[in-house]
Amino acid sequence: MNTDKRKVVLIGTGMVGMSFAYALVNQGGICNELVLIDVNKERANGEAMDLNHGLAFAKSNMRIYAGDYKDCKDADIVVIAAGVAQREGETRLDLLQRNTEVFRSIISPVVKSGFDGIFLVATNPVDIMTRVTYELSRFGASRVIGTGTSLDTARLRYLLGDYFTVDPKNIHAYVIGEHGDSEFVPFSQVMLATKSVSEILADEKNDYKIEDMQSIEEQVRTSAYKIIKAKRATYYGIGMAITRIIKAILGDENSVLTVSAKLCGEYDSKNVFIGVPCIIGRNGVKEIVELSLTNEEKEKFQNSKTILDDSFNGLNL
Ligand code: NAD
Question: CB neighbours of 99 closer than 8 A, spacing ≥ 6?
Fold first, then answer.
């Protein structure tokens, strides 16, 4: 008998949710049960059928089905990728308020099911929606995680790897702050293997320039806009980022990922959920890694934090 059942429930079977589900099935061996829930039940059913038909080609078997909130009871992780799109003339805060109502209709039945696992939120604006999940669920902070700047960090590493012609896995760099316009790269902390990039840039023997770093940061910050302009939405990258976080949790990896986590005094901040490097394991956020930021970077972080606090405080919870 398999006593090591790893069960994930996905709420919101749109483009982001299903890109995640597709990555999960294809990477294989991460979990053995996946439940799909959507307000549009027909869609969830169709997606479950479609994925099941591909299982014969997958690396490992999985039980996949369209389910209901009661299925959350014994789940390890509930992923939320449900959301509504912005209407014409609607402000960001109006959208936030409507997504909060969507979350009210989700979190309450999940908690009522007896769910005792970890929430992983991808719905935008992800830092605020993660904080809303925390407030509505009243779960411990370590068990409420947002995808934060995990995708932005992957984009950064890809671009830096390309620039320095080095495998992105050997680039140690993070995008931190809001998953949005105020996010930034603390370049004082960027390392190529164990060598600081600031040192590499200062070395006149090579052609690398500080302006190129600023351009890379700008490319990371604006890439979602470019993808949305070209193909209406972004979903493969975030689907793979969700899969990576789930793998870290279910595998008890203690991997460092830039997720949206609640600060309790770290970075001179409290209560806000914001993208920071965290050690992620079986119980969610094990520890927040506090980077040694320069004064300028500290200011950028506080600016991002204030933007998130102001948005959250404008909500009618
Ligand atoms: P989508 O419209 O394709 O899918 C949304 C799904 O949510 C739909 O299937 C819809 O039926 C469902 N839904 C709506 N209300 C619901 C409810 N009350 N209960 C259950 N399901 C409900 O949208 P998408 O492209 O998949 O995007 C989903 C979210 O992910 C958006 O908020 C988007 O901005 C966000 N996103 C986040 C990141 C990130 O880095 N965190 C990246 C890309 C997109």
Answer: 83, 84, 123, 124, 129, 132
pLDDT on residue 2 = 44
Residue 1 has pLDDT above 50, yes or no: no
Reference 64, options 53, 79, 76, 78; nearest CA is 53
Helix, strand or coil, per DSSP, at residue 36: strand
Going by C-alpha positions, the residue among 225, 197, 193 that lies closest to residue 212 is 197
176 in Cβ contact with 276 (< 8 Å): yes
Best residue among 13, 38, 43 to mutate for probing ligand 1's pocket (most ligand atoms within 8 Å of CB) is 38
Question: Which residue's CA is the nearest one to ligand 1's atom 31?
Answer: 123
pLDDT value, residue 136: 98
Distance between CA atoms of residues 158 and 152, nearest Å? 10
Which of helix, strand or coil describes residue 153? Answer: helix
User: Are 176 and 258 contacting, i.e. CB atoms less than 8 angstroms apart?
Assistant: yes
Q: Are 234 and 228 in contact (CB under 8 A)?
A: yes
Residue 87 clears pLDDT 80, i.e. is over it? no
- Residue 163 reports pLDDT greater than 70: yes
Is 53 annotated in the active site?
Answer: no
Measured CA to CA in angstroms, residue 8 lies from 153, 157, 286 at distances of: 24, 28, 20
The average confidence (pLDDT) of the chain is 95
Got the DSSP string for 212-258? HHHHHHHHHHHHHHHHHHHHS---HHHHHHHHHHHHHHHTT--EEEE
Q: What is the CA radius of gyration of the chain?
A: 20
Ligand 1 within 6 A of CB of 238? yes
- Cα separation of 294 and 171, whole Å? 20
Contact 124, 308 (CB under 8 A): no
Ligand 1 binding pocket includes 15 (Cβ within 6 Å):
yes
